[in-house]
Specification:
The protein has 4 helices and 10 strands; from the N terminus they run ββαβαββαβαββββ. The protein is an alpha/beta fold and about 180 residues long.
């Protein structure tokens, strides 16, 4: 079975974009990739919501994932295709992820690349295996929540790792508990 990971950066108060939709507040130390290269080498498929994908398209002609299978969930079939590896689909994200998870581990990790609505729906459905969050040392006060859904029920997480990075960034890795345990 393939593992699905919601790998993302957020403010200390839980936002992945500020109130205007910008991520310009995200910062880091120069010449440090915060483990991104190692993570990306393990990824086989990336799932994106329409808003996240459109934000990437607005950044210019550069598309950051031309060498990975990318599935964008949108009912707009006229979205620009940024690379041959990009597939636009109006299929149900939960059913798509469940199907992908049945694949072989050699197909690589499934990266839930954003945004908050897509991640929220997949988390709500119990389909995300791990949360890997990089907390930026900033409080935004408003914006796009990391997990956006009004239906998310309480779910236990198991802390797998904590790592301090330069520039005050902290990486937290949580395994999502699929069933409640009495000792959690």
């Amino acid at each position: 079975m393939r593992k699905s990971i919601y790998y993302f950066t957020m403010s200390l108060d839980g936002y992945i974009a500020d109130a205007s939709g910008s991520v310009d507040w995200m910062a880091g130390a120069p010449n440090i990739d915060y483990g991104y290269k190692e993570f990306y080498e393990q990824v086989g498929t990336i799932l994106l919501g329409r808003n996240t994908y459109e934000h990437m398209l607005k950044m210019g002609d550069f598309f950051p994932y031309p060498d990975r299978d990318v599935i964008v969930f949108s009912s707009n079939d006229k979205l620009k295709i940024a690379a041959e590896s990009v597939q636009i689909t109006s299929d149900d994200p939960g059913k798509t992820l469940a199907r992908l998870q049945l694949g072989d581990n050699s197909d690589g990790l499934i990266w839930i690349g954003g945004g908050g609505t897509l991640a929220g729906s997949l988390f709500e459905a119990g389909l995300i295996d791990e949360l890997r969050v990089f907390i930026q040392p900033i409080v935004l006060g408003a914006g796009t929540a990391a997990l956006t859904s009004d239906k998310i029920a309480a779910r236990a997480l198991e802390l797998a790792n904590v790592k301090e990075w330069p520039a005050g960034i902290v990486e937290l890795r949580y395994n999502v508990i699929k069933r409640w345990r009495s000792d959690v």
